[in-house]
């Protein structure tokens, strides 16, 4: 099977062009190929498929084989893949996902996509639709004890579930230890992605992320969007914010007029390869 490794500020996935290839068990394939010692090494696998309703479809799997409904860094790479490789030379591009069709605005230089602005749609804030089981009817700045430590969490869905909290310093966090406590906390029936935010100014924040199904990654696009929504809801930032993540920077805007969240960042090829399946 032919594959392409791509990355969006270090959030790396193995992309399979399902216009040409067939994958029978993507979850199992993702577990095997994502392994950084015995496989190719990645945060998961993304299938690029034909679509009847959009220009193509993105189907994403985490490193543990679970399916993700949306992937902000992945969808920018899908845009670059289909545009640069001539599968669909449209701009804007419409990509179908498990959480609906997203529109991508491509920044093209010398015929190749450099960065992408994605209309990620409106965030979901009702606890039952995130889903998170909290005593009240809102999920903003809720006190909740994780592994014996009281936190204030804000929960947001960007098509996939996120839990955001503010910390004084992201560098000193032991995410390998605390990440799984959030991911598997009983209030999250479908597990959760967790973002740890350090405020720098009203327009700039630092973020580290523990992703459901993949552990700590260098970046998470949906996590960046959920974090800016949480910052605005907690009156910590303006609606347009630059985020510094371990793998680089993203810019997120929560547009007041439409209520939609826009994600901007780069997308890059790493290498092409062939693997036995
Ligand atoms: N890294 C992604 C999110 C991938 C899916 C997530 N782990 C989930 O299971 O919801 C991004 O850039 O958004």
Automatic annotation (TrEMBL):
E.C. number(s) listed in UniProt: 5.1.1.7
Annotated active site: 71, 220
Keyword set includes Glycoprotein: no
Main localization (coarse): cytoplasm
GO terms classed as biological process: lysine biosynthetic process via diaminopimelate
Keyword set includes Transport: no
Alphabetized UniProt keyword annotations: Amino-acid biosynthesis, Cytoplasm, Isomerase, Lysine biosynthesis
InterPro entries in UniProt: DAP_epimerase_AS, DAP_epimerase_DapF
Site (Could be important to modulate the pK values of the two catalytic cysteine residues): 162, 211
Listed Gene3D superfamilies: Diaminopimelate Epimerase, Chain A, domain 1
Cellular-component GO terms for this entry: cytosol
Location in the cell: Cytoplasm
Domain of life, per lineage: Bacteria
Involved pathway(s): Amino-acid biosynthesis; L-lysine biosynthesis via DAP pathway; DL-2,6-diaminopimelate from LL-2,6-diaminopimelate: step 1/1
Catalyzed reactions: (2S,6S)-2,6-diaminopimelate = meso-2,6-diaminopimelate
SUPFAM superfamilies the record matches: Diaminopimelate epimerase-like (SSF54506)
Enzyme class: isomerase
One Gene Ontology MF term: diaminopimelate epimerase activity
Subunit and interaction comment: Homodimer.
NCBIfam families xref list: DapF
Family in the record: Belongs to the diaminopimelate epimerase family.
Physiological role: Catalyzes the stereoinversion of LL-2,6-diaminopimelate (L,L-DAP) to meso-diaminopimelate (meso-DAP), a precursor of L-lysine and an essential component of the bacterial peptidoglycan.
The protein's name in its UniProt record: Diaminopimelate epimerase
Lineage summary: Bacteria, Bacillati, Bacillota, Clostridia, Eubacteriales
């Amino acid at each position: 099977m032919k594959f392409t490794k791509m990355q969006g500020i270090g959030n790396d996935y193995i992309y399979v062009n399902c216009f040409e290839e067939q994958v029978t068990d993507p979850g199992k394939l993702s577990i095997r190929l994502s392994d950084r010692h015995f496989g190719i090494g990645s945060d998961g696998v993304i299938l690029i498929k034909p679509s009847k309703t959009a220009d193509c479809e993105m189907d994403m799997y985490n490193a543990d084989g679970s399916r993700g409904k949306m992937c902000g860094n992945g969808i920018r790479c899908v845009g670059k893949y289909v545009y640069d490789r001539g599968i669909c030379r449209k701009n804007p591009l419409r990509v179908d996902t498990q959480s609906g069709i997203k529109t991508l605005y491509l920044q093209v230089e010398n015929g190749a996509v450099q960065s992408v602005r994605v209309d990620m749609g409106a965030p979901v804030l009702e606890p039952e639709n995130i889903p998170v089981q909290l005593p009240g009817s809102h999920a903003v700045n809720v006190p909740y004890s994780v592994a014996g430590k009281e936190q204030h969490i804000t929960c947001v869905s960007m098509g996939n579930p996120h839990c955001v909290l503010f910390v004084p310093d992201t560098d000193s966090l032991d995410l390998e230890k605390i990440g799984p406590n959030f991911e598997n906390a009983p209030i999250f029936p479908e597990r959760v992605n967790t973002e740890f935010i350090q405020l720098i100014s009203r327009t700039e924040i630092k973020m580290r992320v523990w992703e459901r199904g993949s552990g700590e990654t260098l970046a998470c696009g949906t996590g960046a969007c959920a974090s800016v929504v949480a910052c605005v809801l907690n009156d910590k930032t303006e609606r347009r914010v630059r985020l510094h993540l371990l793998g680089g920077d993203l810019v997120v805007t929560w547009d007041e007029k439409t209520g939609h969240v826009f994600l901007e960042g780069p997308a890059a090829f790493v290498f092409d390869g062939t693997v036995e399946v």
